[in-house]
TrEMBL record:
Keywords: Oxidoreductase. One of its GO terms (molecular function) is oxidoreductase activity, acting on the aldehyde or oxo group of donors, NAD or NADP as acceptor. SUPFAM superfamilies: ALDH-like. The keyword Nucleotide-binding does not apply. The keyword Cytoplasm does not apply. This is Aldehyde dehydrogenase family protein. The active site is at 248. It comes from Pseudomonas putida (Arthrobacter siderocapsulatus). Belongs to the aldehyde dehydrogenase family. Residues 11-471 form the Aldehyde dehydrogenase domain. It comes from the Bacteria.
């Protein structure tokens, strides 16, 4: 694969110095490679987006909506190929890969509807002062850079790309170098739909490419999803240019289980929150707070459920959990297993890498983890669950909020008034009550504290790519 970059409506060969190896994590072996974009090609992509901006933002909302519906339809037509690629390059079980694709399709459809509902360009604003009139306009923010992660490719890019195009922005998209292939579908679809050249540009590469994009002075906004360490670099780049940035970063989220909860249901919600996508989620509920009265019944059932999960190659086996997506992530998680042994943590399940080809680890549960343990405070990004007990509602809220992150949380209780009360007290961006992590397009996504800046999805996702202009006129 040499023509791996989509710039100004054309597929071009990479001219960078990095060769990107694309791996099958279930085998631990590469199956494709491509050359990264050069710094010059990043500049070409931004220049193309800038050149296409005026014409694209001048199109009607209904025209943009038609393109977005076209993206949704074309994704559906490529269904089996994209599901297979998601399984092969990410290691996702089939049912997870199917949900990813359905999510991307629904996102484009949703923002097509929102685009059609956009108000007219001018809206009168009533003023208390006589002698003046005022109107407001919602305008596209301009050329945006989108940098997306490897854990949910296709999905995270849809969450950014669809509202950006709906708002009238032009885009330079940089996929992760770990999973660079599946986003190529967006360029192929742009070709098939006749999307004007330069509206969507896709560049692949490693850190050098990402830095060239985030530092480029031709961008009007940058949206990044990924680690806090890289996010801080992106934020520094944005501050140097004094331009807006949306950051969706890490998490160390809590799931709070009260003693009136059904044990079987609680186990289901806990397992889903830590093993979906092999725990490689910023929203993974990796801190389990369990009330004293239910702990003795819950923890053995949870241990059994984790030990009985089917872990394997999703392309050849029926599995509940696949491998970690990269060797680097596998080594990172293995390092936390070593830290747990050094700290003397009580391991009830897992705690080890699996002795087989590929980058597999066991679903893991540690009990009675101290609050100062690295495993309790740091984002691991793997199927590693740490449990602590609590006595009162006030204690549960305090311990759940005792984190530098604030992305999501889950509350499990038969007392719905209490569950709602606790949800309101948690310092996070999204709370589930008695549920798996069902993410709906109409709701917002994003966090507080160190989990990021801004929101995606829902109408908030669209407004992130819009600029507000007021025009005030003297009538005298």
């Amino acid at each position: 694969m040499t023509t791996s970059h989509y710039i100004a409506g054309r597929w071009v060969e990479g001219q960078g110095s990095d060769c990107i190896s694309v791996n099958d994590p279930a085998l631990g072996q590469p199956f494709a490679e491509l050359m990264a974009a050069s710094v010059g090609q990043v500049d070409q992509a931004v220049t193309a987006a800038r050149g296409a901006l005026h014409a694209w933002k001048s199109t009607s909302a209904s025209e943009r909506a038609a393109y977005l519906r076209g993206f949704a339809e074309q994704l559906g037509q490529r269904r089996e190929a994209l599901i297979t690629l998601q399984m092969r390059n990410n290691g996702k079980p089939r049912h997870e890969a199917e949900i990813d694709l359905d999510d991307a399709i629904a996102t484009f459809g949703y923002y097509a509807e929102l685009a059609e509902q956009l108000p007219s360009k001018n809206r009168d604003v009533p003023l208390a002062a006589p002698g003046f009139s005022a109107r407001t306009r919602l305008e596209p923010v301009g050329v945006v850079g989108l940098i997306v992660p490897w854990n949910f490719p296709l999905v995270t890019s849809a969450w950014k790309l669809a509202p950006a195009l709906a708002a009238g922005c032009t885009v330079v998209l940089k996929p992760s170098e770990v999973t660079p292939l599946i986003e190529q579908a967006y360029g192929q679809i742009a070709d098939a739909l006749g999307l004007p050249a330069g509206v969507l540009n896709i560049i692949n590469g490693k850190a050098e490419t990402g830095a060239a994009l985030s530092n480029h002075n031709g961008l009007d906004k940058l949206s990044f999803t990924g680690s806090n360490s890289v996010g801080s670099q992106v934020m520094r780049s944005a501050s140097a240019q004094c331009r807006p940035v949306t950051l969706e970063l890490g998490g160390k989220s809590a799931i709070v289980v009260f003693d009136d909860c059904d044990v079987g249901q609680a186990v289901e919600w806990i397992v889903a929150g830590i093993t979906w996508n092999a725990g490689q989620m910023c929203s993974a509920t990796s801190r389990l707070l369990v009330q004293d009265g239910i702990a003795e019944a819950l923890l053995p059932r949870l241990q059994e459920a984790l030990e009985n999960l089917r872990v394997g190659n999703p392309l050849t086996e029926e599995v509940d959990m696949g491998p970690l997506t990269s060797q680097a992530q596998w080594l990172k998680v293995a390092g936390y297993f070593a830290t747990a042994r050094e700290e003397g943590l009580q391991c009830l399940a897992g705690g080890k890498a699996l002795d087989r080809d590929g980058w597999f680890v066991s679903p893991t549960l540690y009990a009675d983890v101290p609050k100062d343990s690295r495993l309790w405070t740091e984002e691991i990004f793997g199927p590693v669950l740490c449990a602590r007990r609590f006595a009162t509602e006030e204690q549960a809220i305090a311990e759940a909020n005792d984190s530098r992150f604030g992305l999501v949380a889950t509350v499990c209780s038969a007392d719905l008034d209490r569950a709602e009360r606790v949800a309101d007290a948690l310092e996070v961006g999204h709370v589930w009550i008695n549920s798996v992590q069902a993410v709906f397009i109409e709701t917002s996504w994003g966090g507080t504290k160190g989990s990021g800046i801004g929101r995606e999805l829902g109408p908030w996702g669209l407004s992130a790519y819009q600029s507000v202009k007021h025009v005030t006129r003297c009538l005298g």
